[in-house]
Specification:
about 45% helix, eight-stranded mixed β-sheet, D-Maltodextrin-Binding Protein, domain 2, about 20% strand, two-stranded parallel sheet, single chain, about 350 residues
Length: about 350
């Protein structure tokens, strides 16, 4: 089982930031006394339906992961798990809904770096606080993106795409911060200027990409690979440091003409701030057990992701480091907060 602390070593400045995030996480774990007392007195958890909120539409990677995990939790506890899709505002609508939910463990948030690390740097004002409004439960997976174009774009590789982008105005769609920042980073490294077309979710952007309304995307494999296999889109590279076993003949974006290019996303579980620590630990245990189930392992593998599990405290520290990393990427890419 992977542990986040095995992947990240903080420098002193990062360590201070991590301690601040971890301190906030420790505070929210104190929870409301009523919920804590009920748990301490032997009330079984879970004893009623759990709702997992995701900030993307059905068919997205996060949605599929939430449904796969939810099925395993139901199998283990005999309690229904409902996945509720609240797409929009780069996951902000879902984040706000969870932040305002009762802190009893029955409303959970399976989300990405978009809401917890990138959005604070992309928006001047958020309807939620990614640290104060949530209790970290645990990380789940890490994944990579696929650079895809509409077939009418004649580029056969990243170098040719860059050359075309310098000669004519190309558009890119994005329904998540990961997809947007990935394309912005591509522009910066190729010294090109693309036109950004925003969407509520990546699957919606994918429809327009297939239809030719936008020219390219750098988006998760779950959303893009089926369209590539169907011949409706053309893949030019993956954003990972090494080739994906799902498309072993496809080079990385770095191999395909853009040395040094690499970007990933991650999924993690959060509860509303104030959720009692024993409830958080119980949810973490259920999630980690679900991640070892064959259907979930198969979903992760089939979608080009890697298991990336953690404790609540490790997720708090990891989020602190990711907040700084995504902020640096966004600033370097020259993206102005909206």
């Amino acid at each position: 089982m992977n542990r986040i602390h095995s992947f990240h070593r903080f420098q002193p400045a990062r360590r201070r930031t991590a301690l601040a995030f971890a301190g906030a996480a420790a505070f929210v774990f104190l929870g409301s006394s009523a919920s804590f007392d009920a748990f301490a007195q032997g009330e079984a958890f879970p004893s009623k339906a759990i709702t997992i909120v995701v900030g993307s539409s059905p068919g997205s990677t996060t949605d599929g992961l939430a449904r796969a995990i939810g099925a395993e939790i139901t199998a283990a506890t005999k309690v229904p798990v409902i996945v509720e899709n609240k797409a929009g505002a780069s996951g902000g609508i879902a984040a706000q809904a969870v932040a305002r939910s009762p802190a009893d463990g029955y409303t959970l948030f399976i989300t990405t770096n978009t809401t917890q690390a990138a959005n604070p740097h992309l928006f001047r004002k958020l309807a939620y606080d990614p640290v104060k409004d949530f209790a970290p439960v645990g990380a789940l997976v890490k994944g990579y993106l696929l650079l895809v174009t509409n077939p009418r774009i004649p580029a056969r590789n990243v170098t040719e795409l860059s050359a075309i982008a310098k000669q004519q105005q190309l558009t890119f769609g994005a329904g998540s911060s990961s997809a947007r920042v990935a394309a912005e980073l591509f522009q910066q490294m190729t010294q090109t200027q693309l036109t950004y077309v925003p969407y509520k979710a990546n699957p919606q952007a994918m429809v327009d990409l297939v239809g030719g309304q936008v020219d390219l995307m750098i988006v998760d494999l779950t959303t893009s690979l089926p369209q590539v296999k169907a011949g409706k889109l053309k893949a030019l590279g993956v954003s990972s440091p090494k080739r994906s076993p799902l498309v072993p003949d496809l080079p990385t974006i770095a191999e395909a003409g853009l040395p040094g290019y690499e970007i990933s996303y991650w999924n993690a579980v959060y509860a509303p701030a104030g959720t009692p620590a024993p409830v958080v630990e119980r949810i973490n245990a259920l999630m980690q057990k679900a991640m070892t189930a064959e259907p979930v392992k198969r979903f992760v593998e089939q979608n080009g992701m890697e298991p990336f599990t953690s404790t609540p405290a490790e997720l708090a520290s990891f989020q602190a480091a990711e907040y700084k990393r995504w902020g640096a990427v966004i600033k370097t890419a020259g993206i102005q907060p909206e």
